[in-house]
From TrEMBL:
InterPro entries: FlhB, T3SS_substrate_exporter, T3SS_substrate_exporter_C. It is found in: Cell membrane. Required for formation of the rod structure in the basal body of the flagellar apparatus. Together with FliI and FliH, may constitute the export apparatus of flagellin. One of its GO terms (cellular component) is plasma membrane. It comes from the Bacteria. GO terms for biological process: bacterial-type flagellum assembly; protein secretion. This is Flagellar biosynthetic protein FlhB. PANTHER family: FLAGELLAR BIOSYNTHETIC PROTEIN FLHB. The gene is flhB. It comes from Alkalicoccobacillus porphyridii.
Amino acid sequence: MATIKMNLQYFADEKTEKATPKKRNETRKKGQVPKSTDVNTSLMMLVVFLFLWMYGGQMIITMFANMQREIFTHYLVADVTSESAASLFQSISFQAVLAVLPLMVLAAFAGSFGSFIQVGAMFSTEPLKAKLNKLDPIKGFKRIFSARALVELAKSVLKISLVGTTVVIMIWTNLEEVMLLSQKSVTDAMSMIGWLTIMMGLAVAILLMVLSIPDYIYQRYDHEKQIRMSKKDIKDEHKNIEGDPRIKSKRKQKQMELAMQRMMQEIPNADVVITNPTHFAIVLKYDEQKAEAPFVVAKGMDFSAQRIKKRAQEHGIPMVENKLLARALFHQTDIGQQVPPDLFKAVAEVLAYVYRLKESQSNELRSRT
């Protein structure tokens, strides 16, 4: 028996169910989303090297022209001091930053766009919070030798091998130009090296973009596996959202009791009670100032019907037995609603009978007095 109980507990705690929308929102708020860093890296490299391919030469010429103008107009005629050397260094650094700034902006935009197409608009500071459990050596050891770590290692080895192969192929196909670099001028050699570097960067960027597709698919699969829930987790979440079933049942019972009390308070002012005679009881009232047609004050079935009839008897409210009309009113109307048009005639006949009965009773009282 104990073994069966343990097996049932194991299956109840096993993470076999897909995450609920609530669990997905919670993990997203914590910054836990499926994301491949290769998408960001490949987009950044592609944008940067495309920019260098189109505007790299002009950017370098502009940067060196500005540096030369600063040097020849200011620093060659200046005294060689520590202040002038520091000023020269600052000027060169500033020109280099201005030249590289467009690349940095493009790289940042490409990285942000890569994240956006994967996870959408999201901002979370949860990953930046310090967590002491990350310093746990046992958990760190488990992370290092986990299946996920082995997959990441295999991915890294594969990427390094493919990138290295791509670079070797690019150099091999242009080996003749590389071997002749020593015989070219500095300008031509630098131009050749720059062109070859850009071509290798573009090739590597395209390769990483291709590799990022299966990597993103794996990241989604691994994320879905990490956020799986057990049947017990889903049940507990449902309890937290909907409330404990026992408390919910008690609340519903209390609401029904309050509704019954309100109905009982309205019965003494009603005109008639239409009965089944045992299963249904519908209390009607006609007030020209409130509604154009008679409306339902209270209704009940079985035990509630018996309570309604008892209350009506205590206050002398007439009761009329009409099985078909009672059943139709019970199923077609709610408390506070007017009688449906197709039942007007039947209800009018009942009210006319009640009014004649009340009039005859009042005439008897007068004759006795």
